[in-house]
Amino acid sequence: MNILAVIPARGGSKGVPGKNIKLLNGKPLIQYSIDTALQSKYISEVVVTTDDEEIIAIAKSLGANVPFVRPKHLAEDATPTLPVIQHVVSYFQAEGKEFDAICLLQPTSPFRPKGFLDQALQTFKEKQTDSLVSVLEVPHQYNPHWTFEANENGILQISTSEKDIIPRRQELPKAYHRDGSIYITKTDILMHENSLYGNSLAYIVSDETFYVNIDTIEDWEKASELAKTITL
After folding, report:
1. Among 24, 77, 184, 231, whose CB has the most other CB atoms within 10 angstroms?
2. Are 169 and 140 in contact (CB under 8 A)?
3. Which residues have CB under 8 Å from 18's CB, separation 6+?
């Protein structure tokens, strides 16, 4: 299977200015994701998509391919991830290069244990699903079987539309949320169904010890402390 790793890293960042190349425990933030992709035995090529010349220079020095400057209309604050990835795929297709699947690695979730990416890619290959995401288990108090939504009359109902609430924590089915670390999608699903997920979604459970999603200064401070204690 021919798999392309895509690392999106635009220059503009309001929460943590310049975060993609800001040093985190002595390394540019983007390096954590680049190193993870380069160490994988399943990744065919590692591409950084960015609109920033300084990020381009640093990404190239770290071993990533940066074949183009991302267009400005795909580097706005509110630009969704999907068209950014589709732009990368379209570029390579125009060059006559095809990939079976795309692996999205977001720099804002930098810590992935050694071998975890390859475990995810192996699971994706074995499951033969449209996509795979890394997840963490939802704490029981936030399980959808124990949460409520208000209907049009302002009356609470169980989020899962069940009539009766599950009484005991031990009876709750496990629920998961995306942790942002790994997304893998078949290229056909991305390009022809305009989706990161398709109709069948596999998963791999992350180690909560490594979890951080950097969006604010407080997140950065948490990541700085975490980087001192974990081994990648």
Report:
1. 184
2. yes
3. 11
Integer angstrom CA distances of residue 6 from 66, 114, 124, 207: 10, 19, 17, 22
Residue the block writes with tokens 């604010």: 216
> What is the rounded CA–CA span in Å between residue 59 and residue 31?
8
164-174 per-position pLDDT tens digit: 999 999 999 99
Give the CA dihedral 2, 200, 47, 88, nearest 10 degrees. Answer: 100
CB–CB of 71/32 below 8 Å?
no
Distances (CA, A) of 160 to 31, 139, 146, 163: 40, 16, 9, 9
8 A C-beta contact, residue 61 and residue 84: no
Nearest Cα to 122, choosing from 209, 37, 204, 39?
204
Ramachandran angles phi, psi of 18, nearest 5°: 65, 25
Lowest mean pLDDT segment, chosen from 7-16, 119-128, 194-203: 7-16
Is the C-alpha dihedral spanning 123, 128, 129, 130 positive or negative? positive
> According to DSSP H, which parts of 40-137 are helical?
53-61, 81-94, 116-127
Q: Do 51 and 76 meet the contact criterion of CB atoms below 8 Å apart? A: no
Interior/surface letters 63-102, b for 16+ CB within 10 angstroms, e for the rest: ebebeeebeeebbeeebeeeebbbbbbeebeeeeeebebb
Q: Determine the number of helices (DSSP H) and then strands (DSSP E) in the chain.
A: 6, 10
pTM: 0.94
